[in-house]
Design a protein that fits this description.
Radius of gyration of chain B: 16 Å
Largest sheet of chain A: 6 strands, antiparallel
CATH topology of one domain in chain A: Thiol Ester Dehydrase, Chain A
Largest interface: A-B, 42 and 33 residues
CATH class of one domain in chain A: Alpha Beta
CATH architecture of chain B: Roll
CATH superfamily of chain B: Hotdog Thioesterase
CATH topology of chain B: Thiol Ester Dehydrase, Chain A
Helix content of chain A: 25-40%
CATH superfamily of one domain in chain A: Hotdog Thioesterase
Order of helices and strands of chain A: EHHHEEEEE
CATH class of chain B: Alpha Beta
Structural class of chain B: alpha+beta
Number of helices of chain B: 2
Distance between the termini of chain A: 17 Å
Shape of chain A: elongated
Number of strands of chain A: 6
Oligomer: heterodimer
Radius of gyration of chain A: 16 Å
Number of strands of chain B: 5
């Protein structure tokens, strides 16, 4: 079953708020100069912020479901410009429940047409 | 400077107990744009795992700004709710060097006040070398 893709906009203000809520104050998510000093194109979103958006799409698609596992690789950075922001799109495909009643949702998470997460996947127990 | 190979298999002390409050869950949910329905958002355990990672990086004198997240997995035993008092215990699972970067595999077990496992997390951290 193909799920309705969600689009989330990401701004630098979102990253500041996420840093405060998560405790992840890595300056590569706030400061262009620091990000460039380690070879990044500029400030990037926390990988965990992008993963949280993917999880948010899953919990919106399946309200009340219990998440059994969640995982992904961070394959490409989400570069967040100082002005405006950038869109992250989360698409998903739900498999048929397996013999244990678990539903696997295979995700595709892109930014400006490029996949940013590798093999993002959630396994759910849907009531 | 590469990370010390002898770290593989080492388990670091548990993080100090972290009390999950409704305010903290609401803040985290709001920060990722999610609605709060009583249970923690699925990526919330990263708060614990991140604290364990920070303690590990400090112990090994690794700069946080040189760390990029490579991979993250969560396996949940039960939802996290307000009132939980959690700690995370990090173990270095693997370490390899690729193109001047250290690829550090870690696991962090998140347990509650009774010692029961709430969530198992694993993370791959890429430590970008100074000349990478």
């Amino acid at each position: 079953m193909t799920l309705d893709a969600r689009t989330f906009s990401v701004t630098r203000a979102d990253l500041v708020r996420y840093a405060a809520a998560s405790g992840d104050h890595n300056p590569i998510h706030q400061d262009d100069d620091v990000a460039r000093s380690v070879g990044l194109p500029g400030v990037i979103a926390h990988g965990m912020y992008t993963m949280a958006l993917a999880a948010r799409a899953v919990t919106e698609w399946f309200p009340g479901a219990e998440v059994v596992s969640l995982g992904c690789k961070f394959t490409n950075p989400v570069v967040v410009p100082a002005d405006g922001g950038v869109d992250v799109e989360v698409a998903g495909e739900a498999k048929e429940p397996d013999e244990d009643g678990l539903t696997t949702v295979v995700l595709t998470v892109t930014c400006e047409g490029q996949k940013v997460l590798g093999m993002p996947k959630a396994v759910l127990r849907v009531p | 400077m590469p990370v010390d190979q002898s770290l593989v298999g080492r388990t670091f002390p548990p993080t100090r107990p972290y009390e999950v409050t409704e305010d903290r869950l609401r803040d985290f949910a709001a920060a990722v744009g999610a609605s709060y329905d009583g249970a923690a958002p699925p990526t919330f355990p990263i708060v614990l795992a991140f604290e364990a990672m920070n303690a590990f990086l400090e112990a090994e004198s690794v700069d946080l700004f040189r760390i990029v997240h490579g991979e993250q997995k969560f396996a949940y035993e039960r939802p996290i709710v307000a009132g939980d008092v959690l700690t995370a215990t990090l173990t270095v699972a693997s370490l390899r060097q690729i193109a001047g970067n250290d690829i550090i595999g870690t696991t962090s077990e998140v347990t509650d006040a009774s010692g029961a496992r709430v969530c198992s997390t694993s993370a791959t951290l890429v430590h970008r070398g100074a000349d990478a």
